[in-house]
Known about the structure:
The protein is of the alpha+beta class and 416 residues long. It has helices at residues 15-38, 41-103, 110-128, 130-134; strands at 168-171, 180-182, 187-191, 194-198, 204-209, 215-221, 226-231, 235-238, 245-247, 256-261, 265-270, 277-281, 288-292, 302-310, 313-320, 325-332, 338-344, 354-357, 363-367, 372-376, 382-387, 392-398, 402-407, 410-415.
Amino acid sequence: MMSTYKHTGTCDLSDEQYNEYDNSLNDLADRINSLNDRLTTSNIDLMMSDVRQKLGKWRLDCYHTIDRYYEQKCREVDRHVAGIVDKQRKEINRIRSSIATLNHKQDAVQKDINHIITIAHQLEQEMDATKEKYLQLNIRTIEIKENLIQIQETNDLSHSPIISPPIKTINYLDESSKIVCANEHHLLVHNDSSLCLLDKELNMIKDKSWTFGSIMDICWSSTLARFLVLTRSYLYLIDESTMSVVRVQKFSKLPWWSCTCSDTSLYITTKDWGSNVYQFTLWPSIQLTKRWQPPQACSQDETINNIIYNKEKLALMIYNRATKSKTIELRLATTFDRIWSLDLDIDYDSRTIRCCLLNHDEWLVVDWNTSNLFHISSDGKLKLTCDYNPSPSCAATLGANILVISTADGINLHKL
């Protein structure tokens, strides 16, 4: 408690005024003591717990990223070795066939036998050198830069927007489909009748002329290390290293609309009322394994505009023509059981509404018609809605901290 205040000036104060000063100072002292109590260790730990949880989540996400990259490289090695073994087995069968031919050849000469011996010796040497020749790995140590995680203060968390202002922008041409897709390092977009591979600064890395029809959707497969481009009737694989285009053979010709990948499966929706969801294997080949039909996938009055996979779950953007409602639902990928559902305040429009995955298993819904972005929590609650101009068409996350939004005019990059 602070000492009682005594006035020593020339102005006389009444006892009532002295008491008022005492009470004010005592209240102020109590307030300061309360503030001091808030700086105890327990309160500081409470203040820091959320930040520590975010750092822990970042660490686990990094572990998962490394695990996925490790599994991807293991699969690449398996494919590489399988190709080598298959080639050597074919050579062995060819040598066997040549020996069988000589056994039945009446005029076989030593020259023929020597030739086969030479081939067999070369194959033996190649097999001995397989490990050294084909399985050399150039592994670079992961570097953690000091500015990878930045600690900043913010004045008002309660009014923070969904996204920050754009950090990079490029313009589109009218012929573009507005579909964007990203992996950890690159962004694939359709622009000026070409598929363009861009880096995190929106610099052009490679491009490839696109003459295979309208692009309905694009997704990335870490298992195949390929972009998958879906058109109205076909599916194409795009190698980001060479930009080669390969059409998937024996692929049913249906009115396809949206696609997404897990580590083991490819999911594709159809563009019709009562949409079906087709599930395919990814490796060793793309083969149909399951078909989800109404009423399990959706009702006969509904169509699935967009599908996104995340951690054994599927996010679906669903439009109901009877109720005119637009809904985002989270389903189990194994059974299609609904986890949560959220109706969105979106006026009817014929254009597809799309969503993308954000950090912490949250979602961003993009609505062209209302020029709005909807920020959805991991448990299906609407956190925030904001205007976005020009009207947004599609969104994707590029790496861990960049949000890509395509618009009527071009592509914007935002820092997450």
